[in-house]
Each structure stands twice: as structure tokens, then as C-alpha cells.
Design goal:
This protein is an alpha/beta fold. It is built from 6 helices and 12 strands. It has 2 domains: about 70 residues, Roll (Ubiquitin-like (UB roll)), CATH 3.10.20.310; about 120 residues, Rossmann fold (3-Layer(aba) Sandwich).
Length: about 220
């Protein structure tokens, strides 16, 4: 009888706990906390997340919230978690611009993955300008992002313009007017090392497209 009574009590406790967590109104989602979104804005994150307040917190679909917030172009990654008893916490990692791109329809930011996001009325200080055609393929933008990301800071600060024709035709224009023929993003780390050395030598044009055989003229 003791075993039976104990089993009944355990079952009752488990049933009550399940009801309390998944079906009662005592642990519902009532608030949303957002962190890490100074550029996108907390209010926009909350609107996009569409957290179903009033729903038991345990039944809130965190994956769906994550997918909705990550659909924002300026958002790189999102972590969503329950904060008992009443809160959904959304931690946002925003995209960081490494350049500004002009494809004939206004200025946008370009991040290290080649993703376009945001918009600018004027070019932000300290970011190189990427100039390309409106129909430039995504692969070319990704290659461009790889090139810019490979530049050491001492070189990157001297780059004023990045000209992109195709994935294999990328050129840099420095603030002093010197041109750098880069080619594709292949071997970009090696090309960056060679370029840093050649910047100390005379020549208006530097070609590092084949880093083992660079030229200047």
C-alpha cells in the first residue's frame, strides 16, 4: 500500500508540474528582454520577434523567434532563451560594416560575409567605398569582403576605393591615388603581406594578383 500511495503521489506531483509549466497562466510569457542591438534597435527586434505573450513560457517556439529576428539584414546571429518565470531573452549579434557599397541605388553597408544591410545618406568616415554594377553577383561581393577582411589595419586605413568587376577582377585605390591590382580573393593573406612591403617602393600601380610574382610600375 505504501508503494501504491507513493506512486500515486509522484504521479500527481508530475501531472501538477506538467500542468503548471505547460498549461497554466502562472508561468506565461509576459515580457521580452533584448540585448546587443544598439543599431537595429530594441523596439524593432521586439516587433520582429512576435513573442506570443500570454502563452505558457514552456510552449513558446524559440526557434521560430530566432528565425524571424535573423531575417533582419543587419542581424548576424540570435540566441533566444527562456528566463523563468515570465520572460523571453533575445541576445542579438549585429553585422559589422567593413565597407560601404554603391551599386547605383544608394549607399549600403557590407559586412565580412559579403552581406548588404542598412543604408547611409553619406559615406561613413573610415570605411572604404566599394564601387560595382547593380547586377554584380553575390559571389563577387563575398570575394570583395574576403579581400577587405584580409587587409592589415595599417593598409586598410589607406584604402579609399575598391573597384569590383567580377570575382577575379578586384582592384584597390589608395587615398593617395595609387592603384593595386588584386585579382580574386584567393591567397589574400599572402597578397596583403606582399602589398605592405611594396607600398614602401615607388610606383603608381602595384600588381599582387600573383603574389609570388608581384610587379610595380
Amino acid at each position: 500500500m505504501r508503494i501504491v500511495v507513493l506512486a500515486v503521489l509522484v504521479a500527481a506531483v508530475l501531472s501538477g508540474s506538467v500542468w503548471l509549466v505547460f498549461f497554466s497562466s502562472h508561468v506565461t510569457a509576459e515580457g521580452v528582454e533584448v540585448s546587443g542591438a544598439p543599431a537595429v534597435g530594441e523596439s524593432r527586434i521586439k516587433r520582429t520577434a512576435q513573442v506570443p505573450t500570454g502563452t505558457p513560457l514552456a510552449r513558446v517556439d524559440l526557434d521560430a523567434i530566432q528565425a524571424r529576428v535573423e531575417s533582419l539584414p543587419a542581424v548576424r546571429h540570435v540566441e533566444v532563451a527562456r528566463s523563468w518565470p515570465h520572460t523571453v531573452h533575445i541576445e542579438v549579434i549585429e553585422r559589422t560594416p567593413i565597407a560601404v557599397i554603391d551599386r547605383g541605388n544608394g549607399l549600403q553597408a557590407l559586412d565580412s560575409e559579403g552581406v548588404l544591410f542598412g543604408g547611409y545618406g553619406t559615406r561613413p568616415r573610415g570605411l572604404p567605398l566599394v564601387r560595382t554594377q547593380p547586377d554584380t553577383r553575390t559571389e563577387a561581393l563575398q570575394e570583395t569582403a574576403r579581400v577587405i577582411s584580409a587587409l592589415p589595419s595599417r593598409v586598410a586605413t589607406r584604402v579609399d576605393l575598391v573597384e569590383v568587376a567580377t570575382v577575379d577582377e578586384i582592384e584597390l585605390v589608395l587615398a593617395n591615388g595609387r592603384q593595386v591590382v588584386w585579382g580574386s580573393a584567393e591567397d589574400s593573406d599572402q597578397k596583403a603581406e606582399v602589398l605592405e612591403v611594396l607600398l614602401n617602393r615607388p610606383g603608381q600601380q602595384i600588381d599582387v594578383s600573383v603574389p609570388g610574382r608581384p610587379t610595380t610600375r
